[in-house]
Amino acid sequence: MDRPTRLFDFIHYQLEKYPQEKAFSYRRNGKWVHYSTEESVSIINRISCGLLEAGIRPGDKIASAVYQNRPEWTFLDAGMNQVGAIHIPLYATISPSEYVYILNDAEVKMAFVGGGDLFEKMTIAQEDVPTLDQVYTFDQMEGAPFWEDIFNDHGMDRVEEVMAGILPDELATIIYTSGTTGHPKGVMLSHRNIVSNTIAIDDYIPCQAGDRILSFLPVSHIFERTANYTYIGSGYSIYYAGMDNLGGEEGDIRAVNPHFFTAVPRLLEKVYEKIMAKGQTLKGIKRALFFWAVGMTKDWEYGDQYTGLKAFRWRLADKLIFSKWREALGGNVKGIVCGSAPLASRLAQVFSAAGIPIREGYGLTETSPGLCIAQFKGPGARLGYVGPPIPGVEIMIDPASGDYVEGEGEVLARGPNIMLGYYKKPDETAAVFREIDGKRWFKTGDIGRLDDLGLGQPLLKITDRKKELLKTSGGKYVAPAPIENKLKESLYIENAMIVGDRRKFVSALLVPASDQLAEWASQSGITYLNETELLKHPAVLSMYGGLVEEFNKDLSQVEKIKKFILLGDPWLPNRSDGSESELTPTLKLKRRVILRKFAHQIDQMYQ
Predict the structure, then answer these.
(1) What pLDDT, on the 0 to 100 scale, is given for residue 590?
(2) Would residue 408 count as lying in a domain?
């Protein structure tokens, strides 16, 4: 068959071109279970037949939620797409109330869930979702309909008739993403959107048919989902795993010995922290060699080739130190693509120099998601850059939408991977597009620049975020404004700004209400010479710590404030000394100014 044009084509393409004995694998009750390509296609077709028999028709919505990636999710995805149903993947960790909103907004008719509390959460939500007829589980549970109950061995003629009529530009999935305020928005992606992205990144993965892939990032996120389609179409063998069972001698990394996987920065940060912590425990010559080898990586850049004495030193460092790092990841890793959040250059540098090639990818749910990926082969990679635009994607830097330094502006994109729009939200859809010289561009909300580094193609560097939404290094979004507004409800907090973009956790800059604090100190019998001394007083720090802990009770785990600092000077809309003000004339936070002015204090919180 020709190259895939619809999502369900990938598994049939694999069957024809690269049939695998272990196409999809995962641990069930501690033991690995494997599905061949042929067996997988059979299950997918039985799902499609069963959905048609159950009354599902093209355009109907089906939801899914799993805590851990598993073959059943992939089979369901292809099975429903073969009959024209629209997949609504849900994050397992959201609340029942969020389920209710999304399920009602999408008018979902059927849902499939994994283990844990998901069946309970979904059935609770079902009470307030009139369209949701049935909830099935991937695991056999007492009192819960089992997903295999819908399997049907008859009706493939009807399925093939529906498949033949599905066009590449038709809607395939709606993925709900968090906004800064209000309800999540449903991003509508067509078959062509995702397929074009999948095929474009195929050559970026340094693997061949039969290589082992470890998949543990949530497939409900478009980053891992698009990668999975690429794996299927290229004939890779996918091993699904859980984030909590990756490391150690008995972990999934050592069990699979993967050739490739995708990751988020926080995962790599944890690996690096463990490596460095282990290095700190070494003694004598072993410790000296460890930090000598790590120190050598600080001057490394993609594409470096060494000769003579320097090459000898690298071979020695590799044999004594870096080979053990690779062994901890199974010893076969050909590459890792990191996405979902910005990656610190140092992480990419130290791992890549140690023979664990890491490249960064950049994109959004609205772009299916890839816009740029640093290349493993050729010159398309530099530390600190997310790479060149992938084939078929155009990137433009728009300096007209803000006050930027020379060469920077908002990153605009166009290509076959750009979303159809936000579901039922035409005004919000129109707001993220801009027409320039007759061309329609998607506004990413990120600030960046395209640099010609003499590599034959410009590389994109992301320098800031236009949107206020924070994204931690673990890939989790945090809306700062609601948290800041809640903090300012306290009598003792005049102003506050949440930080945490590209960081491990969320922290806060707090400007105390000086009069109220002085009164509290007087009543508490605290003596001090000046406000600077007062803000360092243990009792004051303890009091503000208690305030923060109280606010944390109403926040999700990722939103919780882990650290804070107290700043003495008030934030003002203008300053008589001519220095930069922290507030706009309408008293909004100048986030970039504040981040720059207090960069040292912020860095100290994350040391």
Answers:
(1) 84
(2) no
Q: How confident is the model at residue 576 (pLDDT cuts 50, 70, 90)?
A: low
* pLDDT on residue 433: 97
Per-residue model confidence as pLDDT tens digits over 41-74: 999 999 999 999 999 999 999 999 999 999 999 9
Instruction: Measure the CA–CA gap between 440 and 426, rounded to whole angstroms.
Output: 15
**Rounded Cα gap, residues 533 and 538, in angstroms:** 10
> Is 419 a member of any domain?
no
- Residue ranges of alpha helices (H) inside 363-510 are 426-431, 480-487
Domain that holds residue 509: 479-605
**Number of Cβ atoms within 10 Å of the Cβ of 160:** 13
3-state secondary structure 23-38: CEEEEECCEEEEECHH
164 vs 483: which has the higher pLDDT:
164
Q: How confident is the model at residue 181 (pLDDT cuts 50, 70, 90)?
A: very low
Q: DSSP readout, 475-525?
A: S-EE-HHHHHHHHTTSTTEEEEEEE-TTSSSEEEEEEE-HHHHHHHHHHTT
Whether 221 is in a domain gets the answer yes
**Angle subtended at Cα 25 by Cα 217 and Cα 31, rounded to the nearest 5 degrees:** 105
pLDDT, average across residues 470-495: 82
Residue that is last in its domain, among 263, 280, 296: 263
Tell me the mean pLDDT in the region 445-466: 89
Nearest to 394 by CA among 378, 408, 412: 412
Neighbours of 426 (CB within 10 A): 9
Q: What is the DSSP letter of 104?
A: H
Nearest to 552 by CA among 560, 543, 544: 560
How many domains are contained in the chain?
2
Q: The CATH number of the domain where 544 resides is what?
A: 3.30.300.30
- 574, pLDDT greater than 50: yes
Whether residue 144 lies inside any domain: the answer is yes
For residue 217, what are its two tokens?
């990032």
